[in-house]
Give the backbone structure.
Amino acid sequence: MPGQIYALTGNQIVARAAIDVGCRFYAGYPISPSSEIAAEMAKALPKVGGAFIQMEDEIASMAAIIGASLTGKKSMTATSGPGFSLKQENLGFACMTEVPCVVVNVMRNGPSTGMPTFPGQGDLMQAKWGTHGDHPIIVLAPAYHREIYDETIRAFNLSEKYRQPVVLLSDETLAQMSGRLEIPDKSELIVINRETPKVGPKEYKPFDQSQGLVPPLASFFEGYRFHVTGLTHDDTGFPTENTTIAEQLLSRMRRKLTENLDDILKWEDYLVDDADILIVSLGSASRSALQAINEARESDGIKVGMFRPITLWPFPEEALKKAARNAKRIIVVEMNEGQMALEVERILHRTIETVLRYNGQMISPDEILNRIKSYESCEAAKV
Amino acid sequence: MSKLAEVDYNQYLRVHKLPTTWCAGCGDGAIMKSLIRALDELQLPRDETAIISGIGCSGRFSGYLDYNTLHVTHGRPLAFATGMKMAHPKGKIIVVSGDGDSLAIGGNHFIHACRRNIDLTLIIINNYTYGLTGGQVSPSTPLDSSSPTAPYGSIEPTFDTCKVAMAAGASFVSRTVVASPLHMDKMIKAGLSHSGFSVVEVMSNCHINWGRKNEYAAAADLIKHLKDRSTFSAEESEADGKHLLGILRQDAEMKEYATTYYQMVEAVQAKMAEKKGA
């Protein structure tokens, strides 16, 4: 059954999807270009009995959603670069304590205050490595309006399923641009809720390794009375300085993701089978790339395809290798100084080219088309 | 002479996590026992109560008490607590924090929890210093104190926790001292019984990392000093900067934040139902 059709901005879609998947707590702090997500949530949450709070700062917003999630409520915050930096310590706390939550980062041009209302994709590496210490993280990077809806749903689902904070990377262009969205019928929606303990409070261990890679999570105020700490902890959740347990804990947290890649990874292959040139791009930059590819094929008969990670972290390595197998040239297109290019180079072990822009402007299809056609400048990119 | 209430402390403790990491003679143990006496007397439903702490010696409170407990990042327990309270407004949430945790790194959360008057109880243990990291200067370290980060004497002006709390809008503000367990029991109990943001500052002793550098190396000497530096007289406090003890503000009429929010939710939903019916 077809759903209703709306014209919505990317930010509005994030909020819409969050409500649809059952998000019932939002804490945020005003920051361009993400603020409309907070405004939409402030409007929507009271209608469904949920809680919205504008906190005193970005750090507090991140803390609040973790506190709320521990009561069993699906929780979200949204921000942009500077705020994302401030949230990093508590984002790490959520990784360490395995508390589900969703953090939206509407990327803008940086660093620092940068150009607050101009697009950028400079937070790809921060999204993976922003908090200190080794930690697992899932980062999703949609490129289209319907995909923003679907990936927001998936962000919550993965977060609940793997007891894991999930970062949704949007950008200024996607967030502010209105687009057509057909919202799927509620019956088609897949909603995953965290697994709750099957044992009673006396037997319950919140980090029980014997329960598999993702131990069930009890909610506060439901009789379990367990302990949660950012300190290295054992199966019971209490601090430990046992180095064997420390290693087991970090390994399990890593394996949660590495042993479930089939479920977590998502990407798009666009005309890669016969492609001599493979473009690797993501988010709004990939939309310019798409147009360039179509023009190159139609007007010039150049066989170009695109590999587009939708799950950015963990990076879909094997899928990229497969897509790049027959390509003679690899061109990474992104709005930063070459962050994803580093990853692509690492995975493919070969010379890659780049089309980069980091001045707050979108990359135009023409720039990409010029690169596609410029065989002579096919030299190693300085990344 | 009144006596301390007799309580089976073990019933409230995670006994297998004892002994505590605190130094012998530390005020934290006495404060934890006082909190237990208050919890025992009020009989707060165990499963509906959470205890949240941040970083520092006070951070360890949450691990020892048999409640829903959360030990978070430095300075942020009030922010975690605010989210938890809003998501589960029926819950009783107690935050245990220190002067470094709540007045310095967490100062913003402190003033805004006061401003919102959200129904949380903050027990802020003021021992003049960052005890856990070796006695560095905190926003409440007395002027001229010696410290690893003020080897020539502290030049930092201090915060008066209670005055900050009152100015920022907390509806219950009190101060007590670890030297007077009966008074401490009374203040903690009153704070926990209050609906709205309640601040209970407990002047406590870190004889190890503040005392040793400032002529109070023995717990008993520092506790006596704290008692001498405290007063029930507002005039005396004004005159020579002694810590003013007692309930300094108690306003039951002030709007509580979570209640106000959920009243708004009800109003929004009633309007929606009305629209649907019309």
The CA atoms of residues 351 and 380 of chain A lie 5 Å apart.
